[in-house]
Design goal:
- This protein is of the alpha/beta class.
- It has one domain: Thiolase/Chalcone synthase (Peroxisomal Thiolase, Chain A, domain 1, 3-Layer(aba) Sandwich).
- Helix content is 35%, strand content 17%.
- The protein has 14 helices and eleven strands.
- A nine-stranded mixed sheet has the order 3-2-4-7-1-8-11-10-9, with helices on both faces. A two-stranded antiparallel sheet has the order 5-6.
- Helix 7 crosses helix 11.
């Protein structure tokens, strides 16, 4: 069921984002959230007293049951509406949808959405997070690690088998996004270009995925404030509104998804485009979750940018850089900007807002008026799709 009443009823007043770093260096998740929230409020020309809604996404390993109220107190807020949103990597996009619904229905006037994580690559893989505690784990662990790397590798292998997708085509996604990162001083891999050969010669982590096709855990945070278009205008920025939204979930474990190469993005993106009254051909910027190169390929297919099974040739034939004919993840994506836990998903929203405002600097996409954003949770499980647009 679509919710056409959300179209154009909520907008972004401010964004804040921290430069990702390789190590946490003693910083905590609350500290990171506080700093990201401060930047978003400055950008929106708002004070804590102006914020009456709060949505937080927990740290990647979970959070206390009172985390939302704890963060409200820490941020100096007394909200009328608050919640913890956990749809994995889709959490930031899901926050946007819930914030827009809250503003549209009058539950509150301005919702702060904030995500952050403090991840240290030297300890990340010792946390025991394999399978993330899913009930299916006891049936799958005997066959191997079955974490995210293995799950996405299964999808990539199947996509290659079904459609003839090649490693060179997947590598092209990483290369184009690294080109974008080299135009973004905030990116963790800024100034470090790569080639397709570099990707294919990097260590094979789980066949067929190479090291440079897999996100690196890092530390950072991001925040954005959702309010009415009228209040968003007071920020002094061009108004970026939510035009369409959709969510979908078909499974928790990829083992039970049939077919494995088709994701719930078919439903979530379909609802978002329907609500916005546009089609993929109208989109000026694609800003989609990219935990692995195969994630981008399947997202483009299932969102309708190309036919199913044509994702490999499609990314090979199109220029996905900020200078190209299909600008995609112009901040560098999580592969090259960085993935600070759930805040990695928020970076696709903040970049879309920058581009739609015309504030992206060297990597600015000309005449950028419509953006498609997709958040992905689990192993192509929870999906949240947004169509954002600049309005008068």
């Amino acid at each position: 069921m679509t919710l056409p009443s959300l179209r154009g009823r909520a907008a972004v007043a401010g964004i804040g984002e921290l430069k990702p770093t390789r190590y946490a260096e003693g910083r905590t998740v609350p500290h990171l959230m506080l700093e990201a929230a401060r930047l978003a409020m400055l950008d929106a020309r708002m004070r804590p007293a102006d914020i009456d809604g709060l949505l937080v996404a927990p740290a990647i390993m979970g959070a206390p049951v009172t985390f939302a109220s704890m963060m409200a107190e820490y941020l100096g807020l007394q909200p009328h509406y608050l919640d913890i949103v956990d749809t994995g990597g889709a959490s930031a996009a899901s926050q946007f949808i819930r914030a827009a619904a809250a503003v549209t229905t009058g539950l509150c006037q301005a919702v702060l959405c904030v995500t952050a994580d403090a991840l240290d690559p030297s300890t990340f893989y010792t946390r025991g997070a394999t399978m993330m505690g899913l009930p299916a784990a006891e049936f799958e662990r005997p066959y191997g690690p079955m974490g995210a790397n293995s799950g996405y590798a299964l999808i990539a292998q199947r996509h290659m088998y079904e459609f003839g997708t090649t490693s060179e085509q997947l590598a092209k996604v990483a290369v184009d996004q690294r080109t974008n990162a080299c135009a973004n001083p905030m990116a963790i891999f800024y100034g470090q270009p790569i080639t397709i050969d570099d990707v294919l010669n990097s260590p094979l982590v789980v066949d067929p995925l190479h090291l440079l096709e897999i996100v690196m855990p890092c530390t950072g945070g991001a925040a954005f404030i959702v309010t009415t278009p009228e209040r968003a205008r007071e920020s002094g920025h061009p108004v970026v509104a939510l035009l369409g939204a959709g969510e979908a979930c078909t499974h928790a474990s990829i083992t039970y998804r049939t077919p494995m190469t088709t994701s719930p993005i078919v439903e979530s993106a379909g609802r978002a485009f329907e609500m916005a009254g546009v089609v993929p051909a109208n989109i000026d910027l694609v800003s989609v979750y990219d935990c692995y190169t195969i994630t981008v390929v399947i997202t483009l297919e299932d969102a309708g940018f190309c036919e199913k099974g044509r994702g490999g040739p499609f990314v090979a034939e199109h220029d996905l850089t900020y200078r190209g004919d299909l600008p995609l993840n112009t901040h560098g994506g999580q592969l090259s900007f960085g993935q600070p836990g759930l805040a990695g998903g928020a970076s696709h929203i903040t970049e879309a807002v920058r581009q739609l405002r015309g504030e992206a600097g060297e990597r600015q996409v000309p005449n950028c008026e419509l953006a498609f954003v997709n958040g992905n949770g689990g192993i192509l499980s929870e999906q949240a799709s947004l169509v954002l647009g600049r309005i008068a």
